[in-house]
Write a structure and sequence with these properties.
The complex is a heterodimer of chains A (99) and B (312). In chain A, 79% of the residues lie in helices and 0% in strands. Chain A has 99 residues and is mostly helical. In chain A, helix 1 packs antiparallel against helix 2 and helix 2 packs antiparallel against helix 3. The longest helix of chain A is centred in the last third of the chain and has 33 residues. Chain A is elongated, with a radius of gyration of 17 Å. Chain B is mostly helical and 312 residues long. The chains are: A mainly alpha (99), B mainly alpha (312). Chains A and B meet through helix 1, helix 2 and helix 3 of A and helix 1, helix 2, helix 3, helix 4 and helix 5 of B.
Amino acid sequence: MAGLSAINPQFLYVCAGIFLFAIGLWGTWLHAHYVRKIISLNVMGAGVFLTLIAVAYRGENLPPDPVPHALVLTGIVVAVSATALALVIIRRLEDATDE
Amino acid sequence: MNLLDGLWGILDLLLVAVLLLLAMAAVLSSDRRRSMMLFIVFGLVLALVWARLHAPDIALAEAAIGAGLGGALLMATLRRDTHQQTDQFPQHPVVLWGAGVLVMVLGTMIAWGLFSVLPTVEQTWRKGAAVDAHLAFSGVSHPVTAVLLNFRAWDTLLELAVLLAAILGIRALGYVRSAYVTEAAFSQLAVWLVPLLILMAGYVLWAGAHSPGGAFQAGALLAGAGILLRLAGYSHAGLPTTRWLVRLGLVAGTGVFLLVGLGLLGWGQGFLHYPVAYAKWWILLIEMLATVSIGMTLTLAFMGGIPQKEAA
């Protein structure tokens, strides 16, 4: 991590992760429809994961840190189960307003 | 060497640009269907980014769970009766731009905070060296699996419990109208793809001990087989028709994990402290049952909980 020479991949991907977090937050906040809020929330989550994995990355010649990898793997599964529950609630809500 | 570094730099910039543009398009698009498609493509590009950052486990999980199953779950919310679903922002443009500036300021602050602590990471909370030092006692040779099922087994147990809580919530909501159409053409595909998916799930599960893979990726492959069967017109998606067998399958992962933990505690080993000689077999047992539970949970989540009673 000595200096930010030409293009430091870690710096680039951490910035990308934080940017994804910001876009996702914006969409979660401003979208009116729940499905769109869920998509934005998942973009936000992807930003957090990307930041963690970019921190775990230690260059081409060093093995990455396995602890953040395990955390993100857990995070992806928790995110998809929360998404599944939220989407079924939305489907149920739409069915209920139809009847 | 310099040329190669330059190529990697260009590749990094390209990947990040595509990723950010896809995310922005998915959030901003006014067409809901297009937004979902863009989100799925975003997940696939993200899988490439994981591979680039030397995280093949996460690349596998992202492609199968994030993009694949997440996409299938999203598409299942699209309604059959309406073709165009547009989402306009109800807010005034000034509010939209103002909020944009606000989140970017927040992002800059997070970045500033993170980059000011990042140089201390190597000395303080980096645990990679500790994982390498204890890998030989974990029962597996792949560091990520060792963290998930041995060193940090608590987290994984609670993760399976979250999955169980989600499916209990989904089942508690009762019957949900399905948005997808069953397609007879899929049954031809299912005939050869389903056995292949089950075989691949077995391989990915076994490979997890020494290389990228494991219960979550294998469970996602099983769920893929289940969703394919559901789309081909099998109303139970290959799941058992007896209710108690379904329930048993759903709790098997969490239940056996917990029983092994408590059993080891009774044995005087401490909660989830495997004896070194048998660690591999305990991990394999837990992962096998977790795979079954994850596969069934995700398939049922796609179906919307309670299997639909079909007239035909």
